[in-house]
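cache lookup: miss for this entity combination. No prior model stored, computing from scratch. Input as submitted by user K.M.:
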Amino acid sequence: MADQSIKILRGRLLTFQTCPQGPDDVSAYSYEPDGALLISDGKILKRGTYSDVLTNAPDGTQVVNHQPHLIVPGFIDTHIHFPQAQVIASWADQLLDWLNDYTFPAEIRFAEKAHGKRIASEFYNALLSNGTTTAVAYCSSHPNSVDAYFEEAEARGMLMLGGKTMMDRNAPPELCDTAQSSYDDSKALLSKWHGRGRSHYVITPRFAITSTPEQLEAAGTLLKEHPACHLQTHINENHNEIAYTQELYPDAAHYLGVYESFGLLGSKTLLGHCIHMTGHELQVMRETRSIAVFCPTSNLFLGSGLFDKSGMESAGIRTAIATDVGGGTNYSMLRTLDEGYKVLQLQRQRMHPLTSFYWMTLGNAEALSLSDRIGTLEPGTDADVVVLNANATPPMALRMETVETLSEELFVLQTLGDDRSVVETYVSGSPSKM
Ligand code: GUN
Ligand code: ZN
């Protein structure tokens, strides 16, 4: 629940206004070395220098002094699988074997509400330890798992997005719904959760392989009926996946054409992976304003391939970055950016640390059309905030002895940091790190 009391968080504030266009683009962000946020009732009321915020605060306002640490907006993870908390770190071959051998068996256990509740509690602990205050998750195909997921979010006051995975073929019978039942269950869950507190429902057909045309049609109908909701699915992650999709949908011009033909694309559509894209697919992505979600640790772990960030951006496509746990190997957005940096290095694309920090905060919020609420320290937005320490471990502290600029510090955090660098995570103004 939102913390009703009024308080000041003091520290070194960093927040973005737009995507930095290069290392010297100081207009893209605000950095205040002795800054403060005035927080009340889950919202940021004021941002400024510490002395200014203190002078204008009511007498006796509590001050939480986080100096010399950095205060940034809470991290946003735009693609994660809640039922894969016990799949992460499974020794598997590539995507389709990994799904069949580890992922589907683990997801079957979510038929039981008690299991979902236990995993939800641990899952949210892991997010908050790592500074992630908002995530977009696939739940299992069981409605129970969606309830477990949103009940835990509600108890913690978190802005979370997620939905029931729709899948009606090419999976164990315990996980398969039908086109009709997936529509009915998704609709009921959407009515129950979307807009309740900070919860956002996401229409979630897993991917073309596990959905019949009838089910993708049902997903499209649901999206048309509820255009305020997001839709998430996977695309062009793995060569065997693409070949199998072409067999199942022989009339489609390409993989994206399958989703396009059922009306699944739009400015609230999150497409996980987007690695092996054709030129025409890129054009359709741009025209529909669909979002390509980069999942670096997963793409490396499953040997899927290298996401072409520059190619996406020069094609005018919106992008986001995410962990994709449990194909992804870490809950930390810092670890994710580090691996993302390396994926881009292999393609001679060098991501500047200011761009990285923009991406996992305001960039991801913009991709979700939620930048009026999260991903920023602007007054009026939700008080989801992370406090970071770039000296958290001896190797970090040693490296920090030679660091002179903010960008260098961010790069140390991204390259060497993890949950140990997260000093505190505030959700709706309440300290929530586990
Ligand atoms: N494609 C379909 N389902 C999944 C999943 O659970 N993880 C990943 N990485 N790709 C998928
Ligand atoms: Zn995924």
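stored under new cache key. The CA atoms of residues 163 and 304 lie 25 Å apart.
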